[in-house]
Amino acid sequence: MRYLLGTSLARPLIAKAMVEVAEKEGADAFAHGATGKGNDQVRFELGVKSLAPEKTIIAPWRIWSFGGRSDLIEYAKSKGIPVPVTAEKPYSMDRNLMHISYEGGILEDPYKEPDEKMFLLTTSPEKAPDAPEYLELDFEEGNCVAINGKKMNPLEIMETLNTIAGKHGVGRVDIVENRLVGIKSRGVYETPGGTILFLAHRDLESITIDRDTQHHKDKLSIEFAELIYNGHWFSSRMKAVRAFITETQRYVSGTVRIKLYKGICSVVGRKSQVSLYNPEMATFEKEELYNQKDAEGFINIYGLPAQETARLRKK
């Protein structure tokens, strides 16, 4: 687990809102500020093409002669348009409830460490509290519904976790990714609350989903992430994948105990009323539910292909 797709996830929602506003206002075209080198141009435009194929799309970055972000900053300055970046700190920042991303500037050198002053959501792990903090997250059918026993709506949960995790320096990621357009780019991300939710949810699945279903979900999760990253949220394939994932969450209910300390988020406990974990089966002590002698026959049958392949090839 590294990048949790905070930017990619926001684009379908923005595209959907754009279409709704366009319909309300009677607009016949859309415009976006995504560059001609990035992924967002694809995500926005695929969203519009899927929801309002009759509309025209205007992409100024691909029309006007901006050579890069510095040109854009100068243009904004000449027109009196306030922007939160400068020539000294020309980071491209994208912030939403899920995360904040940083690109550009010194980050274009993949060997240079980011300036600590750049980070907005998380405390430096070195300056985080010296004592760990524990949280209990309650889930119902795959969704977090409470923190430390207090019921909250999704917005409150994310805001609360962002604050707590950010205080402990949790959720920083520095990666080089492969853009859809074929370019490698470096991105630095802060996803404090999302990191906790991802790890807690994933751990709860380990005791509430059977092995084969979990393995298949793991395979589909890669496709699911690629569909999001590549802008196919509204595709038929995405609907099918989401339907499978939704079905797997029927029994993902329970409580996960989390420990936060100096930039590290650890799962230290989990429980569920519908858990598939049976301590009487799992024990290494003497028990009656599992006859260890049965394992010999299982291994003989399970290992037969390997045994026969080795035997026949030695002839």
Give a quick rundown of the structure.
Helices cover 41% and strands 19% of the residues. The protein has helices at residues 6-25, 40-51, 69-78, 154-167, 192-208, 211-229, 236-248, 279-282, 294-302, 304-313, and strands at residues 29-31, 56-58, 92-95, 100-103, 133-140, 143-147, 150-151, 172-178, 184-190, 254-261, 264-271. It has a five-stranded antiparallel beta sheet with strand order 7-6-5-10-11, covered by helices on one side. Strands 3-4-9-8 form a four-stranded antiparallel beta sheet, with no helix packed on it.
Main attributes?
single chain, 315 residues, alpha+beta, Argininosuccinate synthetase, chain A, domain 2, five-stranded antiparallel sheet, four-stranded antiparallel sheet, 41% helix
Explained architecture:
The longest helix is centred in the first third of the chain and has 20 residues, at 6-25. The chain is built from ten helices and eleven strands. It has 315 residues and is α+β, with helices and mostly antiparallel strands. The protein has helices at residues 6-25, 40-51, 69-78, 154-167, 192-208, 211-229, 236-248, 279-282, 294-302, 304-313; strands spanning 29-31, 56-58, 92-95, 100-103, 133-140, 143-147, 150-151, 172-178, 184-190, 254-261, 264-271. The strands form three sheets. A five-stranded antiparallel sheet has the order 7-6-5-10-11, with helices on one face. The protein has a domain at 96-209 and 251-277: Argininosuccinate synthetase, chain A, domain 2, CATH 3.90.1260.10. Pfam families: Arginosuc_syn_C, Arginosuc_synth. Its EC number is 6.3.4.5. Pathway: Amino-acid biosynthesis; L-arginine biosynthesis; L-arginine from L-ornithine and carbamoyl phosphate: step 2/3. It comes from Leptospira interrogans serovar Copenhageni str. LT2050.
